[in-house]
Design a protein that fits this description.
Length: 639
């Protein structure tokens, strides 16, 4: 690692302020106001996490060149890399320029060197991938995405209705099996991929949850169904913007599970940014190929095509161009207003049939849905929604406290025409039989063989919280469960016992109190303010100017010592000064040089030249030899 850092620092010394500023712009994550020297900058540039993040911004051509440099063990030259990739010098220079701008690779004499911990994953072997043909564009036309957006909003509503009425099994970990996806997709008469998108949107929007290994609507789902179409679409778009996993066309995301990373966010944002409201792409396939070449670490062809399909389904993109809703999402505009303008108004009326059904075309309004869900049961949730009235559904409406006349009045208010007589007959017939039997809610009972004892208990003011009432001369009904009733009677000085349903005494145990665990403490994440372009340029100028020798500033000995210090981390300061003095004065010094693992050699030399981390010197045996500065372990005056 020190050798590679020294080599990178030596290369940085050869760059101008504009070139160092370009590196800082491409590697903003390592830019820090407290970097003092180019050696400090080189150390930051070799950080493995930063290197991997910089690799993810490379295009396919630059990635191919980086892979070839690594494959040749950092000993290859421009000619050998071009020969391996079978590319022209111009194509190589363009790709290698991308690597230099990110300090991922640089020239060291004739050799090409890559930074430590570089991976070069996804690099093509034996070729340099050229950029595909530029995607064709045309002037955007007025293509409304209303059909696709309505289909998605309606589909999520159908999914919630299915989860409530039928089973949609989930694994104990929260995932959904592929076979279950296929079964529900057949039941809803949609493709598997479409159902996956509905499920992922509903999960991210918290419209569905897992309860005892079954997907069920949540309270947020009920509120979503009760909102108008524009608000429903806006909620789904907000959920799409939060989806941080990479889309898998053949797999459904595990519901209610968290995933680390933000690969999905970068993928979706990058795809959306390529669209424009003024121009439309003529071929989406060409756009996918171009995105996959531009950032192969992010834009997998299949995943990118799936993301574009998601955007079309939500009405963000239509006809290859950005819609007003998509523009609001991209530019952080008023998404709610754009969704309201896109979606048509909800249907306010239903068509009641003589077969006891109510048919609604389009998205029903919250008022219409509430009325029909109260009096009828949702039977079909396909292109048109169908509710069916039955004796049980009418009784449910009467149980809510409504009379027969009030139920009929609500149905007439949402009916397109006069109600069929068969519906009125059904409502009034159920109302005649409603309430003939009554059921009283009893939490527990108090029994005694002595009626006078129960009379005493009922009159006790201290037992008023139990709301005791007589069911029989020897039976009292309590409003509280058995444990609370027993505790209240014991506090008043009585000695009751508890019986279970089998008339057996209940053996009571004292529960041991425990405090809840505080939970694992999460380490605090450090952060720093990102530097803007002006600050990056100023930092680059400062680093270069203080490292470069200039007229009237410093001495040759001081300049040499500064460069040697950046290229060797083993020598003490007095040894660096001694070697720099010998380099300037041409005097003799003795060095210990690491020539192999755990092996050093002693040489008495006269330094002659110092260039790019290599010291050329004349030895006492009359030969001239090159020494890598980073391998010098000790410097002393000869005896």
């Amino acid at each position: 690692m020190p050798r590679r850092i020294n080599a990178l620092a030596t290369w940085l010394l050869q760059l101008g302020p504009d070139e160092v500023a370009a590196i800082l712009v491409h590697r903003r994550d390592i830019a820090d106001r407290y970097i003092r020297t180019l050696k400090d900058l080189a150390t930051q540039l070799t950080d493995s996490e930063s290197v991997h993040a910089a690799e993810d911004t490379l295009d396919q051509g630059a990635l191919d060149v980086l892979g070839a440099i690594v494959a040749q063990n950092n000993t290859g030259t421009v000619d050998t890399v071009c020969a391996e990739l079978r590319c022209s010098a111009g194509d190589f220079e363009r790709a290698f320029g991308e690597l230099k701008q990110r300090a991922l690779a640089w020239p060291e004499g004739p050799r090409l060197v890559a930074v430590n911990s570089v991976r070069a994953n996804g690099a093509a072997q034996g070729q340099l991938t050229l950029r595909p043909r530029t995607p064709g564009r045309r002037r955007a036309s007025e293509i409304s995405p209303i059909v696709a957006a309505m289909s998605t909003v309606d589909g999520v509503a159908r999914l919630l209705a299915h989860c409530e009425q039928d089973t949609f099994d989930a694994r104990y970990t929260g995932g959904v099996a592929t076979v279950e996806i296929r079964r529900v997709a057949r039941a809803l008469r949609v493709a598997d991929g479409v159902l996956r998108l509905w499920l992922e949107l509903a999960t991210e929007a918290q419209l569905v949850g897992v309860e005892r290994s079954r997907l069920l609507p949540t309270k947020q789902g009920d509120a979503w169904l009760g909102s108008h179409p524009g608000a429903r679409l806006s909620a789904l778009v907000a959920a799409w913007r939060r989806m941080d996993w990479r889309p898998e066309p053949d797999l459904a995301r595990a519901a209610l599970r968290d995933y680390t990373g933000a690969a999905g966010l970068v993928l979706r944002r990058g795809a959306l940014e390529r669209f424009s409201a003024q121009e439309a792409f003529t071929n989406i396939g060409e756009l996918v190929e171009d995105l996959a070449w531009e950032r192969p670490a992010v834009h997998d062809p299949r995943a990118t095509a799936a993301v574009i399909g998601e955007m079309e389904s939500l009405g963000l993109v239509a006809g290859g161009a950005l819609t007003p809703l998509g523009a609001a999402v991209l530019h952080d505009g008023d998404v709610d207003a754009a969704a309201d303008a896109l979606m048509p108004p909800a249907t306010e009326k239903a068509a009641f049939q003589t077969d006891m059904t109510a048919v609604v075309n389009g998205l029903p309004s919250p008022e219409l849905s509430a009325t029909l869900n109260l009096v009828a049961d949702l039977e079909d949730n396909d292109a048109a929604r169908v509710w069916r009235l039955s004796a049980g559904s009418v009784r449910r409406a009467l149980d809510s406290g409504l009379s027969a006349d009030e139920v009929l009045a609500r149905l007439k208010a949402v009916s397109e025409a006069a109600l069929p007589q068969v519906i009125e007959y059904q409502v009034r017939d159920v109302a005649r039989r409603h309430g003939q039997l009554t059921v009283t809610d009893v939490a527990s009972c108090v029994r005694a063989s002595d009626p006078l004892l129960l009379q005493e208990i009922v009159k006790s003011k201290r037992l008023g919280s139990l709301k005791l009432r007589f069911l029989a001369p020897t039976v009292l009904a309590s409003d509280r469960p058995m444990t609370q009733t027993l505790a209240a009677l014991r506090r008043c000085g009585y000695a009751p016992t508890g019986l279970d349903a089998g008339e057996r005494s209940v053996v009571e145990t004292v529960e041991r109190l425990r405090a809840p665990a505080r939970g694992e403490r999460r380490p605090e994440r450090s952060w720093r303010t990102e530097m803007d372009d002006l600050e990056l340029t100023q930092l680059a100028v400062r680093l270069v100017e203080q490292e470069r020798p200039s007229a009237g500033r410093g001495t040759p000995r001081a300049n040499a010592a500064r460069m040697l210090r950046d290229q060797n981390v083993f020598l003490r300061d007095e040894e660096v000064v001694l070697l720099s003095s010998a380099l300037v004065d041409g005097s003799r010094v003795e060095i210990k040089y690491a020539s192999g693992p755990r092996r050093t050699e002693t040489h008495v030399i006269v330094p002659a030249k110092h260039l790019e981390g290599v010291l050329t010197a004349d030895c006492d045996d009359g030969t001239s030899r090159e020494f890598a500065i980073g391998h010098v372990r000790k410097v002393a005056l000869p005896e």
